[in-house]
Every structure is written in structure tokens, then in C-alpha cells.
Hints:
The protein is mostly helical. It has a domain at about 170-365: Glycosyltransferase (Alpha/alpha barrel). Helix content is about 55%, strand content about 5%.
Amino acid sequence: xxxxxxLRNWAEVYRKDLTDNIMPFWLNHGLDRENGGVYTCLDREGxxxxxxxxxxxxxxxxxxxxxxxxxxxxxxxxLEASRSCIDFIIQHCCDEHGxxxxxxxxxxxPLRMRRYLFSECFAAIAMSxxxxxxxxxxxxxxxxxxxxxxxxYKDTPGLLQPKYLPDMECQGHSLTxxxxxxxxxxxxxxxxxxxxxxxxxxxxxxxxxxxxxxxKAVLETVGxxxxxxxxCNGRVINPGHCIETxxxxxxxxxxxAWDEKLTDLALTILDWSWEWGxxxxxxxxxxxxxxxxxxxxxxxxxxxxxxxQTETVIACLYAYLATDDERHLLRHKxxxxxxxxxxxxxxxxxxxGYLHRDGTVAQTAxxxxxxxxxxxxxxxxxxxxxxxxxxxxxxx
Length: 396
């Protein structure tokens, strides 16, 4: 493989897809110029299907447009879109205790609160990235205050409703892994020992509790001390989440001058998760597997969603940057070729989100409360950056 030619091609694809396709779609169709923030419930053509706003995406898109501003091109409309989403969060999306809602109306009336802390995580990374873009350090302080609130709710027994009743004590992979990335993004804007401590705490928890070598897998749900729970939910492997975890750890390993133990941990998780996730018959990363190979319970278990493919693209590039091992680029080629052959909509733009196992489109909407402008543009921005990082490494 001509590595330089291969990566130059993909760097150009990533930049062009971001600036000419994904960002215009959401700025033209999703940005709410009346109330502020962004709509995500859009049909194939970009028509609004539902004015309900995902609070996750106020933070997610607020982060993405600032991240693009900081790393791709300093476009004023991107900076203004980020500010619009963040202002909407501040004005409408928090209760009297600082907790954030999951859904609000178009003009910001609260509709639903969930037990999870993901809205807060996405708001924090939006504020920290906007602080870098705008130079306004007050947003970095807001982000740090939000992070303190997240840890307070996470670590204080009784503040968050448990997922199960007391006879089923457990803990989940999702918050553990996302706090690595949340703290890392905040650390780019400001320094606080709490951020490094939480990253280390999350990585240790992943190793101690969620990494199960007996299955060569990272499990989504385990007991309080990492016990294997032999139920349908306890046996779930989510390859996309695990692969996302691998690149979060690789990013931290790079921050620590390619710490060997962290790099090895991340590459092991990536290898395991590729084996569980890559569909050898149809291609693409599959949704769910059972660690004992029983039939998975989730009805979407054999579908191909957009986001596991994007996480795999990033992870493979990070793995190649770490190792110069071309097998990671071969995997990158497999997942990238498959994703670009099936997800983009050449007629109306953006990507489909939900495919059947064979790659045919399951439904044509471009967004809802869970799919919107985050995973795809993050992949495009990170992909472009990582390709250039690899070029620089090989020139040194």
C-alpha cells in the first residue's frame, strides 16, 4: 500500500465531506435561527419532522462546530452556531439543581429528564471547545463547573436513580468510558488535576471491571466489582462502544508520550472488538453480540448503525499512528470502503443512520433524538487531523 497516497486521499475526502456535505446540511436545515440551538428530527431531505429538541445534541453540535472552527477552518458561521447551541443550553436545558434535561420543546420547555449524565458531558465539551475557539475563558470555567456536577451526581449514592432494583447491583461501561473523553476535551481548554485524576480512575475501572479476557471482550454491564452477570443484559458486547473506548485510551496514551501499557490495552480492546464486531459475511460493524454466543436480546442486534463505523475509522487511524502497523490501515480501508458505499445519500446529502445487516437502508431519516451532527463530523474532523499527524510523524 502506498500509505502517503492512501492517507492523502482520505484526508481530502474527510475535509470535503465535512465542509461541502455534513455541515451545510445541518446549518441549512437544523439550526434554529428563531429560538437558538439545533433541531435533529429531520427527514431524508432535511424537512423538520418533530420540533422536539435533543438536549444531547445542543451540546454535541455546539462542540462539533467549535471543534471544526479550531481544527479545520475558522468560519464565523461555525463559531456562531456553537454559541447558539450553548446559549440555548444555559437558558433552557438545566433544572434548578444544574441537572440537564434529555428533551425540550423547540422554545426550551422541559419535556423529559433521564437518569444518565450524558447531556451534561456533551454540554461540558461544547463549552470547553467554544472557550478555545472564542478566547472567552468563562466558558471553560462553566465547563469545569459542569464536570464537577457530573462527578458529584456520579459519586454520591442516592442522587441518581439506579438502573435496577437492589437485587441486581451493577455498573455500566458507558459513563466510565465517556468521562475519559469528556475530561480530555476539557483539559485542552484548561488545567485542573481533577481531570487527570478522573481519566486515570476511568481507565483503571475499565481494566479492573469491564475488560474480561475470558471472553476477549469489554462487557457493557458488570457487577459492582466487575462480576460477570450471566443474563442477556450482562452478556452484551457493544463493539462500537468498545472500539470508541479504544481510541479514547489511545488518545490518552499519546498524551502520555505513547505510554506502553495504555497503548497495549487500547490495541487489545480494538483487536477483540474488531473480531466481535466486523461482519465477515456482509461487512460493516454489527450492533450487538452475546459474549457466550447466545442470540442477543436487542431487536437491532444485527443492524448496521452509522456511529460504530465512524468510531472504527478513528480507532484504526489512531492505531496506525501508534504502531505503523499496516494491518490497522487495512482495517481502516475495510470499514471506510463499506461505510462510504452504504451510508452517504448522494441525492439529498448527509448519511443514512440505520441499515439492515446486508447494508440496505432501513429508514431514510437523517436525524432524530439520537442521530444528528456528532459522530459523522467528529470522524471527519478527527480523520483529517490524524492523517496529517501521520504525515508529520513520517517526515520527522
